[in-house]
Amino acid sequence: MNARNRMLLAITVAAGLALSACGGSSGSGGDAFNNSLAFGTGITGNGFVLSGESTTFPVATTRTGIYFRLESSANFDGRFVRLYFNNIENMDFSGCAGADAHICLANFSVSNPGTYVVKAYLVRPVLDIGTETYVTQTTLTVTP
Question: Is 61 exposed, middle or buried (0-12, 13-18, 19+ CB in 10 A)?
């Protein structure tokens, strides 16, 4: 990805982290939580289920916002979520930092078509950057 595309990649949290959710008892199989990252067009059900789940979205959809669902086998224990996009851009989501949380749902937007390797970390705040613990990664494709 060239410098122009890096600058054009605009990943923003949609109007407030009030739309993010965290949970502690809605993992797959009851109380068993797995490391997983998924993308969708909305949230449905009990607020911990993605609708329109996919790894490929048209840019018209991603510009207005898509949702992610991060599930961690370890509880968040006060750590926030950090997503890296192609190891270039990152976005932090602090609305999911509950002590017993295992699930984070939030939304963001992507302005440019491309293929993005999205890596998810739990981050314990330390000074300006924090201590990162890798959770999982998946590929997000944004089509023209």
Answer: middle
- Report the distance separating Cα 15 and Cα 56, nearest Å: 23
CA distance 33 to 74: 8
Q: Is the dihedral of CA 94, 98, 100, 104 positive or negative?
A: negative
pLDDT tens track of the chain, all 144 residues?
Answer: 554 344 334 333 332 333 344 555 444 445 689 999 999 999 998 888 999 999 999 999 999 999 999 999 999 999 999 999 999 999 999 888 777 889 999 999 999 999 999 999 999 988 777 899 999 999 999 999
Task: Give, in order, the Cα–Cα distances in Å from 144 to each of 56, 60, 74.
Answer: 11, 8, 37
Check: CB of residue 115 under 8 Å from CB of residue 139.
yes
| Distance, C-alpha 89 to centroid of its chain | 13
- Domains of the chain with CATH codes: 3-143 (2.60.40.10)
Show Cβ contacts of residue 118 under 8 Å, excluding neighbours closer than 6 positions: 37, 68, 83, 84, 85, 137, 138, 139, 140
Tell me the whole-structure pTM to 2 decimals.
0.80
**Which tokens go with 28?**
């797959």
